Amino acid sequence: MTRIYDAAVLGAGLAGSSLAKSLADKGWDTLLVDRQLFPRHKVCGEFLSPESQSTLQSFGLHEAIASLEPRRISLARLIFENGSEVELPLPGEAMGLSRYSLDAALHRTAQQAGASLQTGTTVKDVRRAGYGFSVMTKQGGQRCSVGARIVIAAWGSNGHAGLPGYRREDPAKPSFMGVKTHFSGIVMEPVIELYFFRGGYMGLCPVEGGLVNASALLRRDAFVNAGQTVLSIIQAAARRNPMLNRKLAQAAMVKGTQAAVAPVQLNRKLLAWDGLPLLGDSATMIPPLCGDGMSMALRSSAICAPLADRCLRGELSHAEWEQTYTQAVRKEFKGPLQWGRLLQGLLSLSNTESWLPHAARLAPGLAQQLVQATRLKPYSC
Length: 381
Prior knowledge:
The chain is α+β, with helices and mostly antiparallel strands. It has a domain at 4-169 and 275-373: FAD/NAD(P)-binding domain. It has 10 helices and 15 strands. The protein is globular. The chain has helices at residues 14-25, 52-58, 62-66, 99-113, 230-238, 242-249, 293-312, 318-347, 352-362, 364-373; strands spanning 4-10, 30-33, 47-48, 71-79, 85-96, 116-118, 122-129, 132-139, 142-153, 176-184, 191-197, 200-206, 212-219, 252-253, 259-264.
């Protein structure tokens, strides 16, 4: 007999895990599913922006995150090929924390709240059923069907072909890839550093345990001869910015922390609902340069959670949920996405390093306002 949950959350990243915890906290029988095994390293800036703090508080997650001893960050520094720099104070305290630790902590809190977690489980199909939805999964060659009154998709930017939220890569647009690794042996201030070079940029973010996360967004056509390993690609990128190359010269790569992803789809249109509510990167991707992606993932979950609760209580139909959620997501994210893409475009121009540092020194307030426009507003329940 098929087990029927109140809610099935498909994707156990930031958005999915926080939503599963929220629903379980309210007493709903919740299933959290992910195709990956955890804990794991993934391509991510590992930067929890100041804007994420209020959302973490609303989920009751702040103490769990603080116990992981994240690094505190108060400044962003942009460093160009010619050695020029721009410093931007952050609007509050940010945190550097590995996804390896963060995802594991979120899973623990979701399970402690009562949610069931299935990892290494691929969703093959989602269909309407009389009680709500039928979800077909596959784990280790074994197929299984579970039921759920509601289903939420939080399975990331590339999605699953044939399932809600999937969008095929546009071959007419530049194709990007993301790579990451942790380094030891780098002494860093409470600063996130962004190094720019031809074909992309790399961020260095201090994380727990005295390590530094190096994550890069690169044009694939600019690194076709960089080799096949994450280390060779990162080394090839570092050679394009002398200051970055010197920074990494004495660093030691931490074994087992490497990850890569391609394609990375920038400028995807916002899509909040596709038969199911879409959370986090499933709905859209804020340009990684803005450093607010994790905050936006958490925020989409915070918007969705009370609506899912009301739907389960019979106070809101699926149609009303779709309309309310779509409107709220567009209102919250439209401005930051537009300004974020503008900033991403400006910083990718070939002559940026010749004028941006001077402009920032002449009008520091304007530079700060531009960055602030890419950020979410503090969350209030």
